Amino acid sequence: MIEKIATKYLSVIGLIWFISTVQIGCRKDDEPSPATLRDSTAVHDILDNGALATTSVSDPIPGTVLRYGHVWVKSSESAGAPTTSDSKNVISGALPATLNFTGRIFGLTVNTEYKLRAFVETNNGLIYGELKTFTTAPDYVARLVRNLNDSLKNKGFGYSFVVTRNNEIVGEGFGGHQARDIEEGGERFVTVDTKMQIASMTKTLTAAAFLKLASEKGIKTTDKILPYLPKNWTVGPNIDQISFRDLLLHQSGITGFNDICQNGAVGENGWYGLQLLIEKGIRLENRGRQCYQNANYGLFRVLIPAMLGFQFSDDNYADDHGTRQSYEKYLKEEILGKLGVSSSGILVNSATSPTFGYDFPYSQGTKGFDPGDFRNAAGGYGVYLSAREAAKVYSGLFSTTDASILSAALKDSIITRGMGSYSSVTPQGKFSYHDGWWQSGLSTGKAKGFRSLWMKCPDDITVVIFTNALRHGDGLFPIRSDFYSDITSYVLWAFSDIRTSENGRSQAVNFHQYLQDPQPH
Known about the structure:
Layout: H1 2-30, E1 39-44, E2 50-57, E3 65-74, E4 87-92, E5 100-106, E6 113-122, E7 125-128, E8 132-135, H2 141-152, E9 159-165, E10 168-175, E11 177-179, E12 188-189, E13 195-197, H3 202-217, H4 244-248, H5 271-280, H6 294-298, H7 300-307, H8 316-336, E14 358-360, E15 384-386, H9 387-397, H10 408-415, E16 422-426, E17 429-440, E18 448-457, E19 461-467, E20 469-471, H11 487-500
Parallel strand pairs: 14-20
Antiparallel strand pairs: 1-2, 2-5, 3-4, 3-6, 6-7, 6-8, 9-10, 9-19, 11-12, 13-15, 16-17, 17-18, 18-19
């Protein structure tokens, strides 16, 4: 009896086990495998503090999509893949019909590796995409480049800029017209290799040329210029008091033909104009006072050849021609050439591909302004460079690691003592620079021309920027805002904007107030 009961009990247990096994097996067969999002995700526009992620989903997602986006985590903080418990961007609602979406990745740490993947949440649960890794930029420079590009592009004027750090190009931008279709050569567009008239940015090159040569010849900046002037020039009152330093700092006492301390005509900077200014002489009370005059640097076109041993004659034409060639040759070989810039004609607008200056907004149907040939009035202005060439020159000239052109002391003469530059101190640090301005038709209210700038910024960053258009009214940098009114304050704003945004602050200030000498040069 007991044996029958036991047998019956075991049979029941076996039946229960069989039914249970079949039911569990059926449930597992009916339940889908954990879903994986079939996608292609790319991380791009990677900055120091953010990036963009773009995802393309391969197949339609079953169920109702509730939300989607991207999740990310520092690789150093998680051994696994990121989930919605980590940092994320979220878009609510159904996926776009294209099954493509882009999300902003924010709040990142500089120079750090992250893991990222896309996610889609449906009424059936979460689905994650393919795991990606990326590393943020080592500093904020990419944001500076983007700031410049975003504020300049598609505005209707020509521009080019290059940003360097530690003497290496880290970003650039360009756009607009080099020549419009009304010009004889037809329509052409600006690139970073488009040469433009850099105007008074030339003064920095002239200062560098003098300082380099003077150090080699044992000439001091406090030495007087008189022994290096042509012997047949008539020397006016107090010219014998002027030193090289006076010229470099615009404190020579030269006030131009009109004695109003405003830059005079181009004629003042040619051979005969300089000769007449020396004959005119200076007033002693003006020496040592700041008076910005192109002629201060125009004289170096005569003085540098004399320092090189040029022998003046009584033939003004021959001496004019000879000093022109000597100055240009020294600048090309000892400054530009040694910084990696080679050009056959640095003082002449290209005959085959000239760059024209325009007004802004552009007056439809009007031809541009061709600055032309500066060989007879160089020194204070006149050099043509592209943004890429200028970046090589100005970042190389003041490189903290390269002393092949100027020693640290000579660099300091320019950057700190202002012999060929100006400076500005803002909450972000010290900036050294020299701008350039070349225009025609200012009195009409629709000046055409060029605005240019090199600026040495903190963290060994150099910005070179050119525009070949001037705004209506004052004839300055084409755009303005509450934060800037000209090209110098524009770059100060661009730098400040990305630096202050790191801690969420913005400065409601026009950066023009920080400029040492706010007038255009």
